[in-house]
Amino acid sequence: MGPSGEPEQPLRTAEAAAAAGYSVQQVRDLEAQGVIPAADRSPGGYRRFTARHVRALHAYRDLALAVGPVEARRTLREVRTLPPGPAAALVCALHAGLCAERDRALAARRALEAIRDEPGAEEGAAGPEKSTPDGDPDSMTITELAQALDVRTSALRFWESEGLVAPERLTTRAGTARRYPTGAIREARITAALRAGGYGIPEVRDAIGTLRDLGNTGPADGDADRTLAALDARIESLTARMLALLRTGTHLAESAESSGRGPGPDAPLTPAASGSTHP
After folding, report:
1. Measured between alpha carbons, how far is 221 from 186 in angstroms, rounded to an integer?
2. pLDDT in tens, 188-211
3. Using an 8 Å Cβ cutoff, are 250 and 76 in contact?
4. Are strands 175-180 and 168-172 parallel, antiparallel or unpaired?
């Protein structure tokens, strides 16, 4: 039946493929994988698709854009087999994951903007040039960095223990000493700016992790501008993915509501549905 209750006109495989913008083989593969519902067969054994299958094919394209093809295939299979509650929870988890990823990118962007706009930022992350024992004019001791950031040395040690800052260790006659190269200085500045802005350790860790993923916590203003541009591109991409996921909403809701199969309405997600394993 169509959305208004009338019988749907059967479609041959080639017609369904053309309507959804897929090849005939892609349609057959997606049906065989359980990504779209199985087609009825004519008395002669030919597949008979309907507009419902075309909608499922369109949903798969948007879902693959939103979360990737592997996750999209798994999700479309699960929502048709899980009870409605776990199926809805599975879809909500996809939305939450994209929102969290966007929040991390926004936090990283705010951190970079904060340190780029600091007075004296044009002097570089380490401040005025100075002589150091290892010959690197931009590196700092823990005492120098604490003074530059107006924080306690214990704060720097705590940030290190939380994975927010990664100083080098130098061997001295007295043992070992921390030495902060330019990348570690930049991470410390980002951490200090976010902490001063009220961000908790988990949020700071996410921001630092995002910047590390982009391969940039370096000191130069040009690097900061390039990283901001990369973050803007990532945020724009995430927005497109979130919109694509929203476009699948009606199809996913219909699939979840019509499934009615599984161990029960309050059953927990299966291992595959919770993301712990993949087929």
Report:
1. 11
2. 988 888 887 777 888 888 888 887
3. no
4. antiparallel
Residues 112 and 213 in one domain: yes
* 73 domain-assigned: yes
* Spatial distance between the Cα atoms of 155 and 189, rounded to a whole number of angstroms: 12
* 58/44 Cα distance (integer angstroms): 28
Cα dihedral 121, 123, 125, 131, rounded to 10, equals -160
216 within 8 A of 226, measured Cβ to Cβ: yes
62-113, pLDDT tens digit by residue?
999 999 999 999 999 999 999 999 999 999 999 999 998 898 888 888 877 8
Range of the domain at 225: 102-240
C-alpha gyration radius of the chain: 27
Secondary structure string (H, E, C) spanning 2-56? CCCCCCCCCECHHHHHHHHCCCHHHHHHHHHCCCCCCCEECCCCCEEECHHHHHH
Q: What is the pTM of this model?
A: 0.66
Within-domain flag for 8: no
Tell me the three state secondary structure of residue 278: coil
